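Input record (one chain):
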Amino acid sequence: MSDDKREWVEAAAYILLLLLAVVASQHMNVVVSGSMEPVFYRGDIVIIEKSNFFGIKELNPENVQKGDIIIYDATWFPEPVIHRVIAVEKDKAGQKYYITKGDNNPSPDPAPVYPSQVEARVITVGSNPLMIPKVGYITLWLKGL
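The corresponding structure, as predicted from the sequence alone:
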């Protein structure tokens, strides 16, 4: 192989690696609290499917079910929340919403979660969430959380 071809192949490999890293990083979320212990702990990284990944709908938030662990924009907390759906209900207007709760919390979250608030769902195999333990502590430290 000529040097020019080798350089192009190398450049293409680096670009592909960078693209894979960007896609992979967008499908990971760091756990910032202990509210879901013992399922996962602060600093764990969970693998997620997003409701909107650069215009691609990997997850339809309307299809979330009881038992799913979701990441949502809470009206009562400044950061996205990772909690389990404990009930699926409808309001007086007939609109679906979710009741969520951290597995380690004594009571449900203070406000309902509508599908429009759902950012992602944690991917599970059987009933076990896909995660990488403790690696996210670096991110928490850098963000000062």
